[in-house]
Specification:
- The protein is α/β, with parallel strands linked by helices and 198 residues long.
- The chain is built from seven helices and five strands; from the N terminus they run αβαβαβααααββ.
- Strands 2-1-3-4-5 form a five-stranded mixed β-sheet, with helices on both faces.
């Protein structure tokens, strides 16, 4: 079984291939993945249509277990999905992936008054991550402020997985699973990993 650090290196290498436009010449195919699931990593990413996780990391069928939700937040549904990946599928790395110019994070920074209730609930989950980063009332957040908030949100979600799941926290404490966070840039295709200790 792959070690957490090896899983992280596979993601880094896959993103490097994606950025260079030199994809894996023999990725795992749909037919290769007909047996039981054996993903080497789980990715909790944003629902943004410009963030196709398997493509960003140049991975084939069955290699990643992907959970996507606007703002890459982790409520009970997302945490339960990641627990399934760890417990039933043997995943050894969970990556929380934010992205450049995230609309959900921008909504949390600006907090428009007319948010529908369900969307407001989603934005509520982002607000603790960006506490202290809000622009002046009514002001558009700068690119730098938004980038800092996106990174803070990815880190916050990664940290929240420990508190939100005794199962995941136990596996991390035992060194069997690692949790990392990262941000994907649309303009370059580069994924910047935010954690030095993984």
């Amino acid at each position: 079984m792959i070690a957490p650090q090896d899983a992280l290196e596979r993601l880094r290498a896959g993103n490097a291939r994606f950025v260079q436009g030199a994809p894996n010449p023999s990725p795992q195919s749909r037919l290769d993945a007909l047996g039981p699931q054996r993903p080497f990593a789980a990715v909790l990413g944003c629902s943004d249509s410009r963030c196709p996780v398997e493509a960003i990391f140049d991975q084939g069928f069955g290699e990643l277990f992907v959970v996507r939700v606007a703002g890459n937040v982790a409520d009970a549904t997302q945490v339960g999905s990641l627990e399934f990946a760890v417990r039933a599928l043997g995943v050894r790395l969970i990556l929380v992936l934010g992205h450049q110019n995230c609309g959900a994070v921008q909504a949390a920074l600006q907090r428009p008054a007319d948010l529908p209730s369900a969307l407001g609930s989603l934005v509520d989950r982002i607000e603790p991550a960006i506490d202290g980063l809000r622009p002046d009332a009514g002001a558009e957040p700068s690119d730098i402020l938004l980038a800092n908030a996106v990174a803070a949100n990815a880190r916050h979600t990664a940290n929240a997985l420990h508190a939100g799941s005794p199962l995941i926290d136990h596996e991390v404490a035992g060194g069997r699973v690692a949790i990392a966070s990262a941000v994907y840039a649309f303009d370059t295709g580069i994924v910047t990993f935010l954690d030095e200790d993984v």
